[in-house]
Amino acid sequence: MKYILLLGILLLASCQNTPYDVRDTGKEVKAFPDYEDVTIPYNVAPLDISVEEDDTKSISVEICNHENVTLLTKLWNGRDTHWDIKEWHKILEDCKGQTIQIVVTICKNNGEWERYNPINIHVSADAIDQYVTYRRIAPAYETFSAVGIYQRDITTFDEYTVTDCNELQYSCMNCHATRNGDSEDMILHVRGPHGGKNKKKGGKQKNYNTKTDYNINAFAYAYWHPEGRYIAFSTNTTRQLFHAGEHDRIDVFDGASDVQVFDTETDSVLSAPHIHTKHFENFPAFSPCGKWLYYVHADSLPVPQKQDSLRYVLCKVSFDANEGRIGEDIDIIADKRAEGLSLSIPRPSPDGRYIMISSLKYGNFPVWHPASDLWMYDIQRDTLYALEKANSPYAEAYHNWSSNSKWAVVASRRTDGLHTRLCIFHIDEKGEAGKAFLLPQRTPRETEDNDLRSYNCPEFEVNRMILDKGDLMKFYDKPLDRESVH
Amino acid sequence: MKLGWREKKNQTVVVSSILYAGLFVYFYYFFFGHLQFLEQYQLMIYTPEYIGDMFSRPGGLSDFIGRFFTQFCYARLTGALAIALLLTINFLSTLYTTQRLTGRESCATLLMPACMIVFLMNEYAQVSFIAAITLAEALYLFLTLAKKSSWYYALLILFSGIGYWLIGPADILFITLAITELLFIRKYNNRFIFSAIAIAVHFGAAVTVYRLLPYRLHTMLTGVDYLRYSAETPLIMWIIYLIPFVACTHAIYRKRLKITWQWDWLIGLAVSSCIVTILHRESSTSEQFKQMDYWVRCGRWDKVIRIGEKEGPRSQLALVYLNLALGMEGQLTNRYPQFPQLGTRGLLNDWKRDCISALPLAEVMYRVGNMNTALRYSMEAMEANSDMEKSGRALERMAEINLINRDYAVARKYCMILRQSIFYRDKAEKMLAMIKKPELIDQHPEYGYMRKVRYNEDFIFNKYKFHPEEALKHLAMQNPENRLARDYYIVWQEMARNENRVCVDDEQVR
After folding, report:
1. Is residue B359 domain-shared with residue B246, that is, in the same domain?
2. What is the value of ipTM here, to two decimals?
3. Among A190, B258, B412, B489, which residue has the least CB neighbours within 10 Å?
4. Is residue B461 part of a domain?
5. CATH number at residue B410
6. 10 Å Cβ neighbour count for B40?
């Protein structure tokens, strides 16, 4: 009887208390996501992990500072950590500019404890903007079911719905853009027969039908002028192509594309013959000083027959915000055609020093090109280089900067090659990117396995994005009331 | 005609047993295609997030029960058993409601299962509406247990709010029944005030939820999950709300007819059967396609051909399945002229950006070895589904294609979701085992074969750049083993060449 009691006590004690008789494995722990050697902002949400070692019954995880002093130890049943947000933030606040270590000790199903090598995480003293807004949609072809614009609080795990297709009656939406990360000035593109642009400026919303006789199509990719009066747009006739072989699925090309500037005070479109040509102009972006308009350009070729020969270059043209005038001289500032690369989606850093850009083999739609990578154009040094640490073997696309130019977010297919996930990475004073890490999730493995949607077009914001539901629904309820852009 | 307790019990047992048997026969022999059609667009998985998501909007409980029953429609037998059971419970709740309000039974309660079947014939119908009506009646029956006016009022107001969240807008049936009892039976003081409060709570809840959640007000008043596409509410749903009151009216005036309860129920069964039979015949075109779809999913090509031989293809989509079945059985080149054809449109239908027309395209493309196009149409079949649910059938096919395409991470992802369901678990586990040991894929009779006959080189195409005839030729030429692609190519050429001779007009294949 006493042996049975003893066995019972042992079983109860097994894996319930602090680790004992711990064996050092000397190995890296298999965990998802990979946070080894990443640089994180001190105000980010807890980096929860899912341990993927076999026979894991429970885990004990310590956080140590750079002097190897244990700051916090927690024990969890199962494979997932679940850090308390307040405790986590206090530790990061105390360890700004230092490296912390996450030490994982696993209790196996047989009751033995095994310790793995620490995961090193560098805590940057640079804060990150509190919110990131993105579109969530299945990586589908033409149709879509659940689609919406959502905003995530990066410092916690809270997610808010900005709008979704339940509200806009199964309409697709995308291409949201804010001015300098301030959601009070924003624009949202809604597709479909009743589609258009919903613009919010100074908190006031207005709907526009942006398809006019002058445009080849409605406004698509948008970028605000820093002073808030103008919004640069591309107008595109986008088409899909399909791959026949293994792995690759879709290719996207423009039958035509132009760049224009919308004046929000006069509701009129500014254009110039040299950026409204038979060639392809796309993805406009204003410089932070507002004096330059960047965009990508490719010489006209018959598409889709020659779409795999279309290679874009990065251009700039001057812009006079006082006169509302687009300059006449176009400069090609980055060109990788000789190396067989095309450049797309230029995004200037808010401090005006860099332009982050996608590089791909051809075309301008990097998300369907597994080989697409992020590059950086240093405006001062006039050099273009790959952001090696931020890239992965899969597609990276739709990158954006935080308001302090220290962080960037990108939609990456790195987890399974198909579903895009938001990854954040640090940019140091030399313009080099740190290793990208997945936006923190509670129960990361479970979340990853059950999430069949892609996250794209991320943008950092400093405040909550709130749209008036009644104004948004005017897209559908009173579509004819919308004002046309002159 | 007043009946004793024992006689009432016998009556209920006999009628509900006959009803259950009748419903089972109908679902098993005539409606199985439709039930499978419902199931394939609504994958039920057992995770806290999935179930929590259901309860995060009005009608969560009815949605959960609806999906729970729907999952059994994966198989013909379990589907017929489950949906017949749900409709019988729904009938009983209407019967007890009528008994409670009038003290009598009415054969008009049989209109409830009949109208529910008519409702299910709508392609957008969801089983959750049946669950919602049943729950509303059950809630009312629970309320009748309250003996004191204070309890009655308290529960009425409570269920008007909580009921809206759990059942959805069908909670209005509970409120209407409760108010009917209050006004005509209980006649408590302040009954008008509390009736008005209950209605105000119901609509107040709808408006509050509309303000808080990203839904349209119309959806909040007609139900989030009663239909897969909730822009329009079919007339039959409004009729169903009235059936308990029709049954009560009939029960009150029935004594004048002076007929036995056996005859009364027989008349009810006959009328209900007539309604179902007439409307079933009306929808025979789409039901034929759905039956063929069921057999295609089961790989029973002989059954598809038998339906074609017996009835002739009644729609373009049915013809596409018939030609596919002929091809799979090696009879396409010889036998296709024996059936009414629509030219090349009978081999490959047009996709209409919906979830139905994508199914035959996905199936044909998979069988001829055009894996990526099959993947595309499987995804379209799932994503064009307006209620934003995942399709178990499409996910399973996409997992298979990703296995064949060697995209193991994506295949694993789909399998990890499928393994959390009841009916897809075994298949998902088998595929997960193959991902761990990829050589098993080459040894698999179907996947190994598909790897051999699929496109073995990558090229880019679109509908302008690459005609289906070229695609079939390419598949047939690159691998002589691909007999189906070869047969399709031959027949495609013949049909295209002799379009006028081979084709009949659309009237013949309605």
Report:
1. no
2. 0.90
3. B258
4. no
5. 1.25.40
6. 25
